[in-house]
Every structure is written in C-alpha cells, then in structure tokens.
Amino acid sequence: MIKKILFVTSEAHPLIKTGGLADVSGSLPKALSGLGVDVRLIMPNYQAIKTTEEIFYKSTVRVNHIDANILETRLPGTQVLVWLVDCPEFFDFPGNPYVDEQGNAWANSAGRFALFCRVAVEVAMNRSYLDWTPGIIHCNDWQSGLVPALLSLEASRPATVFTIHNMAYQGLFPKSTLTALNLPKPLWNPAGIEFNGMLSFIKGGLAYADRITTVSPTYAVEIQTADYGYGLEGLLSHRNDALTGILNGIDLGQWNPRTDPAISEHYDISTLNKKQLNKSALQKKLSLPVDINIPVFALISRLVEQKGIDLVVECLPGMLALPLQFVLLGRGDKEFEQQLSRFAKTHPDKMAITLGYDETLAHQLEAGADIFLMPSRFEPCGLNQLYSQRYGTVPIVRKTGGLADTVVDALPENLGNKTATGFVFNEATAGTLMEAIKRALLVYGQPEAWKQLQATGMQQDHSWHKSAKDYMALYEKLVPAGR
Ligand code: ADP
Ligand code: GLC
Question: Which ranges in the chain are annotated with CATH 3.40.50.2000?
C-alpha cells in the first residue's frame, strides 16, 4: 500500500528558507515521492513566500475560534503538493518565519505556531475537507512539536515521527501561554510539554512522537549527553529505543557544479581546472586582488554561536597574516557582524564580507573558494560541508555531529589510501582551528595531493538515495494508533 505522509515544516526551499531545515524540507519529500510515497507538505503561508507555481484555495478550518484557509500549491518544479496554512492575522507580515523585518523574534511566535500545529492536526485527522487520510505525520523541529502532543489526545490517530534538526531551539514560553493559547491541560505535566515550569513546544515532539529521528548518527548520540542535550538529555536517553540518526542528503540538481546557473564556469572532476575561473570571477566580484594561486577560504553561515564564529574571529589576526584570502557570507548576531566587518575594513585586500542572505552568492562562493570553514561547536548535520565537497572545495570542520560523520580527515594514511575529504579538528578552540588551517595550507601547496582531496570529495554520494530509504524503512515499521 502506498504510504501517505504529511510532512510538517516551518520552511521549505525554494518557497522560503532561513537555513538547512528548508533545504531538507525541499528535497527529502521530493526523494520520498520518487520512491512512490504520497507525501504532502504543510507550512504557514508567510508573506515572504516566493513561487511562480499557481496557488489554489482548498478549504477553511476553524481552530481555537480562529479561521484558517488551506491553500494548495506545489514545491516549485515538482509534483509534490504543498498546503499553505493561510491566516493573515498571524502570517501576512514582512520578515522571516521566526523574526520580523528588524530581526526581532515575533512577539506572538507561540500563537503563530500553535495555530499552525492545530491546523496540521485537523489535516492529519482528515477533518479539513481535503479528503486525504495520512498514515504518518512527519514533524520537524519545535515549530511542529505540538502536533504529536495534540494527536496523542485523539482516540484513533496516524503514527508520528519527530525529527530534531537542532536541540538549541526549543520553543520555550512562559506557563501562562498554556492558558492564553487554550491548550489542553492534560498535556501540562513534567512527562509532557512542561519543562522547568515553562511550556516547551519541542517536548511535544520528544515526549509524544512514536519515533524520534535526528539528522546524523553522531548527533543522535551527542544529544543524550549534557553537553548537547540542552537539558533534555534525560528524556532523550529515556526514549533511546525510539531515537535514530539519519544523515541528511543534498539536492544534487540544485548543487551541481556541472549545471549550476549561478556560477561563471561549469566544471566537474575531469575539468577541475575550470574551477579557477570561478575563483577569479569571485575575486573580481568581491573586489579582492585577482590571483588564482592564493588559497581562498570561504564561510557561509548563520552568524551564531553554534557555528563557532567566535573561534574564527579569534583566529582572524593570525589567519590574515598568512598568504590567503577569506570570503564570508552570513547574517546573525550583531556583535559577530560588527567584529567581522572591522577585520574586512582593515584588510580589504585579504578579506571580503557580505552581511545578508544571498542564495546566488552562496553558490558562487562554493564554486570559487578552495577551502570551506565550518568550525561548529555543534552541528546536527550541516549541509555546507556536503555542498563544498561536491564543488571540490575542501572543508575544514570540527569533529562533531554530522561533520564527524561526513568528513574524513586528511591524515597521511587517509591521503595515501585516497579516502580523505577534508580537515578535521577536535577541540573547539582557536588554536586547534588555526592548526587545521595551517595543515590545509600545507596540503594546498602540494598540487597532486590537493587534487586528490578535491576529487575524493566530489566522488562522495551525498544524494538522498540512501537516507530516503532509511526514512522509508522507519515509516514501514509504524502503524496508526487505535485503528
Ligand atoms: P543551519 O541549518 O544550521 O543553518 P546547514 O549547514 O544545515 O546549517 O544549512 C545552512 C543552509 O543555509 C545552507 O544551504 C547554506 O548555504 C544556507 N545559508 C546560510 N546562510 C546563508 C546566507 N547568508 N546566504 C545564503 N545562504 C545561506
Ligand atoms: C539545523 C542544523 C543543521 C542541519 C539542518 C538541516 O538547522 O543546525 O546542522 O543540517 O538543521 O537538518
């Protein structure tokens, strides 16, 4: 029987994106649909959604005294159906899913996502006039956390999967929110959505979902420890039997140096020398001295503590004294933005920084750079190290989460047996990052070894092929409850 799966997410590329969750929500459903699954997305109808696909009105549901329309469209360029929860009083504002135009978190975040979850539950229960009964509801991150919790109160319900993309974001709100949102009282207990006297959206997923997944095997182990569990390590160890790590894949169509419309010159392993043309185009675009011999380091990231940006800032004086160029694209914490801008201003011949969100430039950086920096303090999976490998841009990563699972360190033996795909360091300190940078420069100075490192990365299979099958295997084991 064909599985019917409702995929609940707060962002999906190319409709709207703030980070890797959108990449996964835009590509995993496509891969599942390729395996014969009837998968449909549900997400809020934000003002900022961009699409050229048609959008139709489907129905109106009333939840907690609020009317919400359900609109139907498709993931652009695919047959995958998307239902947009349209409620202008919550979502028809400029800004992104989590912050307003000024970058401040939405004051009514809890209300926005509680409404979204309630509508998703109505769709899950086939009570929203869409005439479709899913067998599995696949939720992602705290914004969808109330869905498994609310479904647990239904006598007969679909099975639920909750995927953790990041334990650092939990959707914690004051206890008064429970009453303000009129949430069912039975959910309020320490084994439920209560967390240290606060209302926790993510616990709705962690406590009530039939299965929990996260986006790499290493992160699945890490989050059961105090260093990575953000206070929920006990609950996660308790649910150990229900928890698995499935590595993210990437969209090979969108991230392909052979066809990428954003880059100057297409290339693959057999034409790797053409990568240099992308490098000079990038240097020119960013007003850096054009020099194909100087190694270009890149970083594309949300500028937040998770990503080890403080380590990069600490390394910068040493780094900029070396023969290299550094290009950075990101936005986030104002303090990081200011610190990084100051370095770029005082070293205009070595460092170029773009503060903002720019999909096209992200592709150009991947194609034009030699080395990619990803010194994350924690990284559930990470996608840029995978995009980098595919573009022959060698990643430097900290050994954590998905980075540990996807990058093989360029130790002499790994270089010798042609398995190395990057540089890996252990401690989250500026000193160890700097050592890794120097190691990378040494190998960069050996053209044959460098080429091999690039080629091995480019040959890795990071498609959804295997992971989508792992999700399928997980879905196969699940059965709706009480039916
Ligand atoms: P996270 O989801 O924690 O931000 P990932 O590595 O999983 O980290 O995914 C980040 C995604 O967001 C990648 O596709 C990356 O290219 C993209 N990205 C991050 N910052 C920017 C930016 N400033 N401009 C364009 N793309 C960005
Ligand atoms: C999160 C994580 C990142 C992961 C992405 C998609 O935002 O920080 O590591 O790749 O989700 O799963």
Answer: 4-249+465-482, 269-461
